Amino acid sequence: MGLSKKWTLYLLHHSHTDIGYTERQEKLKRYHVDFIQQAIDILTDIENGKHPEWEGFRWVCENYWQVENFLANSSPDNIACFERYVQAGLIDISLNYLNMTELADNDLLNYKLAQGRSYADRLAVPLDSAMTADINGYSWGYADALAKNGIENLFSCIHTHHGMYPLGKKHNGFWWEGPSGERVLTWVSDHYHMGNELCLVPEHGITYLLEDRYNPDAEVADFKIAEERIYKYIENLDNDAEYDYHFVPVMISGMSTDNGAPNGRILERVKAWNELHGDEIEIEMITLNHFFEILREQVNELPVYRGDWNDWWADGIGSTPAVVKHYKDAQRKFHLGKQLAPDAVAADKAYMDDVAYELTLYAEHTWGYSSSVTEPWETLVNDLDFRKSAYAIRANQLASLKLDAILADKGEVSIRPDREKLFKVINPQATKRKDSVRLYIEHWEDVEGVAVDILLQNMEVVDEQTGNVLPSQVRAIARAKEVEVVIELDALEERILRIRPKKELQKEKYRYLAVDKVNDIMYDGWQEGLRVNAHQVETPYYSMVLDETQGIVSLVDKQDGCSLLRENMEHAPFAGIYERTETKPNAWEVRHTMGRNRKKVDTMRYVSKLRDVRVAEAGAVSATVVFTYDLEGTQMYEIHMKVYRDTPKIDVTLRLHKDSVWDPENLYISFPFTTGVKEELFVDKTGCILRPGIDQLPETNQEFYLVQEGAAYVGEEKSLIIAVKDTPLLVFGDLEHHLIELSGHGDKNKNAEPLYVWAMNNFWETNFKVDLAGFYEFRYTVATVSTGEAESAVDACKSYNQGFLSMYI
Question: Which of 153, 347, 592, 621 has the fewest CB atoms within 10 Å, i.e. is most exposed?
Answer without folding.
Answer: 347
